[in-house]
């Protein structure tokens, strides 16, 4: 199924419903049948949508107008409009309880907390404009906010039940770039700008547990991620390495390098190769049918196992430009903590999959095009990859496969999103989206 819509953000709720937007309209569909359940019309072009945690409400943000509209699935006639007025609006999100909305005003002057239940309003001053300035614990009890006051970085921790300040402390950073809670909610990671390699780990009461610095006088941290068990913190750096910290001493237990040549014979290298589809001459007709014409001019691909050593395509970054394409730009743990997937921007066509139990490189996927996005199945160790073409690639310990999306026209997949059940995923292009359904194996 495809629809000519512009999907700004598509998030699956816990019920089988999905939402997408087409300029002024919000379309709510059933995930299994793709039937339209509700159709809402907003006041302006929608730039961001987000489900509440219980999937009962949908937030639609119109940043140009400084307005947020909220729609209810249980009560279609109920409506809510939040107007930030002259303060403007640059970001909007739900709180974990699904009954409060956090709006960040222009120039990051404040964060306004709106309650849908009591209609009360709370304000948080001096939020910092950084990559990830707001972080909630997984259980939804606490929220951390990065702040900037008097040319110095601070972190404030709030209790989400009543939005009271729990802790407020300064950080030893030059320019705080982001914060992220461990999944167990006990440790908060805060990392500095890429100009200085520094990551700080704080407890819930604001105590500094540890500081880690791998090197100095070079571009530092580019990406971080926690393992689902909170036992490991993976740090991707501009030096093309991933360092793993343990949760006991917060010291490095290993580092993963990403060389251009794979020499270890125990590493499996899957290489994507193209093949021309074979068409029987008896089936040829003039003019050809639409399905036959599509198969004649489409290229299929499959994976071959390469013999090591294997040389991967390496791109030397341009040194005199900002934000150079180098270092570890993507990394993600599988849901069972067994695998870590990474991408080195210097080698844009490869996905590296590491065995966390053995702390060794397990598999490398070498694609024909640059990696656009990858994401783990939330229920099992299965990785979905897209490279900007009309194919989706799936890897599991049993092997990997290339799947052609059966669509007419040019459908270039730039991102993807798994359903929480792992039975389906949304594939997004610039102007279209489709839903991919996966059959569950019978045990």
Automatic annotation (TrEMBL):
Coiled-coil portions: none
Entry's Gene Ontology cellular component terms: microtubule organizing center; MWP complex
Domain of life: Eukaryota
Protein name as catalogued: WRP73 protein
């Amino acid at each position: 199924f495809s629809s000519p819509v512009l999907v700004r953000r598509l998030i699956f709720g816990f019920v089988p419903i999905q939402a997408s937007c087409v300029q002024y309209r919000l379309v709510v569909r059933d995930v299994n049948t793709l039937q339209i359940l509700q159709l809402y019309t907003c006041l302006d072009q929608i730039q961001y949508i987000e489900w509440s945690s219980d999937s009962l409400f949908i937030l639609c943000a119109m940043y140009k107008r400084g307005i947020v509209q909220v729609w209810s699935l249980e009560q279609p006639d109920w409506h809510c409009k939040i107007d930030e007025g002259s303060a403007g609006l640059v970001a909007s999100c739900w709180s974990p309880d699904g009954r409060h909305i956090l709006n960040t005003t222009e120039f990051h002057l404040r964060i306004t907390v709106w309650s849908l239940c009591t209609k009360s309003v709370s304000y948080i001053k001096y939020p910092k404009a950084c990559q990830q300035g707001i972080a909630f614990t997984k259980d939804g009890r606490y929220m951390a906010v990065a702040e900037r006051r008097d040319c110095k970085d601070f972190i404030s921790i709030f209790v989400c039940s009543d939005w009271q300040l729990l802790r407020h402390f300064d950080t030893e950073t030059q320019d705080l770039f982001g914060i992220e809670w461990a999944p167990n909610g006990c440790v908060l990671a805060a990392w500095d700008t890429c100009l200085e390699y520094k990551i700080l780990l704080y407890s819930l009461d604001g105590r500094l547990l540890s500081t880690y610095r791998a090197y100095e006088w070079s571009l530092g941290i580019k990406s971080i991620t926690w393992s689902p068990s909170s036992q490991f913190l993976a740090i991707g750096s501009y030096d093309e390495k991933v360092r793993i910290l343990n949760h006991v001493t917060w010291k490095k237990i290993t580092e993963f390098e990403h060389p251009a040549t794979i020499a270890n014979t125990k590493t499996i290298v899957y290489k994507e190769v193209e093949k021309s589809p074979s068409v029987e001459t008896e089936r040829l007709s003039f003019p050809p049918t639409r399905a036959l014409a599509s198969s004649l001019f489409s290229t299929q691909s499959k994976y071959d196992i390469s013999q090591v050593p294997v040389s991967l395509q390496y791109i030397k970054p341009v040194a005199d430009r900002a934000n150079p394409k180098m270092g570890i730009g993507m990394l993600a743990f599988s849901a069972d903590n067994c695998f870590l997937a990474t991408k080195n921007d210097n080698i844009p066509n490869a996905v590296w999959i590491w065995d966390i139990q053995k702390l060794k490189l397990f598999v490398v996927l070498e694609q024909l095009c640059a990696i656009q996005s990858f994401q783990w199945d939330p229920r099992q160790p299965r990785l979905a990859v897209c490279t900007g073409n009309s194919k989706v690639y799936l890897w599991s310990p049993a092997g990997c496969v290339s799947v052609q999306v059966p669509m007419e026209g040019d459908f270039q997949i730039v991102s993807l999103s798994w359903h929480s059940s792992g039975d389906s995923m949304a594939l997004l292009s610039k102007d279209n989206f489709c839903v991919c359904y996966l059959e569950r194996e019978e045990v």
